[in-house]
Amino acid sequence: MESSKSIPTSLLLLLAIIFSINYSACLADPDPLHDFCVANLDSTKITVNGFPCKPASAVVSDDFFFSGLATGGDTSGMFGSNITQASVASFPGLNTLGLSMNRADFAPGGVNPLHSHPRATELVFVLEGELLVGFVSTANVFYSKVVKAGENFVIPRGLVHFQYNAGKVNARAMTVFNSQLPGVVLAPLGLFGSKPAIPDEVLAKTFQVDNNVIDLLKSKFGN
Ligand SMILES: *[C@@H]1O[C@H](CO)[C@@H](O)[C@H](O)[C@H]1NC(C)=O
User: Fold this and answer.
1) Which segment of the chain is annotated as a signal peptide (predicted)?
2) 3, 89, 138, 139: which is deepest, by most CB within 10 A?
3) Minimum-distance ligand 1 atom for the alpha carbon of 75
4) Cβ 72 under 6 angstroms from ligand 1
5) 121 Cβ partners below 8 Å, 6+ apart?
6) Is 34 marked as a binding-site residue?
7) Superfamily of domain 74-86+98-180
8) Using a 6 Å cutoff on CB, does residue 87 contact ligand 1?
């Protein structure tokens, strides 16, 4: 009562609006409504924002355990990198908890190609070797840094970014996301490998090149 007399209502309202704007801007996935909601990934009858919960009586300790990041994937593919994911899709215990993690392995010269995560900010922690990590802001400013073992770099939600192993030895990083399923839009595949393909005319005009350049790029990504 005291405070509502001394602070004008309009100021309180303004503060409430400022607080709610800032608050919602740093949220990713919605808050859970239960202690846990281990995903039933096989549910076809019910679709919700996320996955329906397995009955609590059927939940076991192993639902909260995942060993899939203990080993890295094969880095001999075209990009010289391999991303192993611990998202809700492979680790159902993460459902509704608002976070997930990837392991990224890189051969020398390997790249996790330009991509973005529509639903999450990404915190990159380098465990081994060193990576050039960079993102581009909506103002087209390129921010980047060589990140060494034990160091972090953060990539704001939704922005296009990459990690590149410019070193002479293998590199390894863990990446943490504030979403159970951050989603990934991989620029080369999205632009040149989509099914069905984006028309050549659109890509040629977009990149200001001839159709044969577009056809060459499409041929690299299965189109
Ligand atoms: C990543 O590694 C796994 C396991 O070694 C392999 O099956 C998969 O094809 C690799 N992915 C890429 C993109 O090279």
Assistant:
1) 1-28
2) 89
3) 14
4) no
5) 28, 154, 155, 156, 157, 177, 178
6) no
7) Jelly Rolls (2.60.120.10)
8) no
